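Why does residue order matter? Because the sequence determines the fold. Keep that principle in mind as you read this record.
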Amino acid sequence: METPVRLLYLLSTLFLSVSYVAAWFQIPISEYFQWESAFVFHLGSAGSSVLLSFFSDLSILFYFIGTGLWMKDQAKALSKNDRERAVKIWDIYEKSSKLKALAFPFATFGVFFGILTFVMGGALQVGAVPHWVHPTLATLLVGVHWIGIPFIFYAMNINYDNLNLCSDLIEEDVKS
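Structure:
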């Protein structure tokens, strides 16, 4: 499960970056391809990149929430039969739960800046905000994604090891 989530996050970061760079050159790109509107090009490329970004950020959040719940449920289920192993799994769960502090800020700010960038892009089109607001938010969105990669991947690596430890402890119950 970790590999697809990582690939999705990397892919969305790459698409965001390409859309970000293309946004600065949307007029020449549109003229080169003889498209009718640079705005339509920007809305299509950036809009789809932001949607992919939402999906990848939410996948990170749901991955940690789901694996944490699985460990917690396993500890509760084992507590009836084998208190010692249940406590070990609970300790692993608590260690994994602390990993959310590494990953959640980047995924949450990714969603936050994605929404703000999209909304403020529309506000820019109608002249409701200064011109610098939309590109600044887009820069923050792309930056959060790139800066978050090592933190999120590190947390996922440790979480993966913790899931394996839990699985090993659960399998001991099956073997005996």
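The chain has one domain: 2-175.
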